[in-house]
């Protein structure tokens, strides 16, 4: 795990109390570019004809969906954050995973009369965010921005864990 920006529960001495020093939030904007439906070819045509969208996962629901052939996609959310004994942890309805392995999902699916039929997800790990950036956003109410291309090497929707440098994180 790179950077160690989010950590699991450490070993505490018997009887030691957990100290929560600051509870707050981190504002996050995910900026997606190079959506796969904008390209030429049969794969992009299938995405457009299949009414494929990408959105951010909020608990089990995919919200703020954007067409796979849009010029760009952007999602702005807030996650809870807390500093416990010097370790920063995040949570909330957009955050998935256990402490030390927290992440956001960008989910792909076809929008049909029956709803959203998800078929692929991209995982954006908090452990891939440089610690100093996550902490700066937590402490200053700055905006944490993750920028990534949404097309994989084969021309399809990006999926699985998205590692840097495929995603870059900055604080604004």
What fraction strand? over 45%
- Unreliable stretches (pLDDT < 50, length at least 5) are 1-13
Quick one: overall form? Answer: elongated
Cα(first) to Cα(last) distance is 25 Å
In order across it, which strands form the biggest sheet? 5-4-1-8-10
Question: What do these coordinates show?
Answer:
The chain is mainly beta. It has one domain (23-171). Helix content is 10%, strand content 47%. The strands form 2 sheets. The protein has a 5-stranded mixed beta sheet. The longest helix has 10 residues, at 131-140. The two termini are 25 Å apart.
List the helices and strands and how they pair.
Elements: E1 20-33, H1 42-49, E2 52-58, E3 61-67, E4 73-84, E5 87-91, E6 103-112, E7 115-125, H2 131-140, E8 143-149, E9 160-161, E10 167-171
Parallel strand pairs: 1-8, 7-9
Antiparallel strand pairs: 1-4, 2-3, 2-6, 4-5, 6-7, 8-10
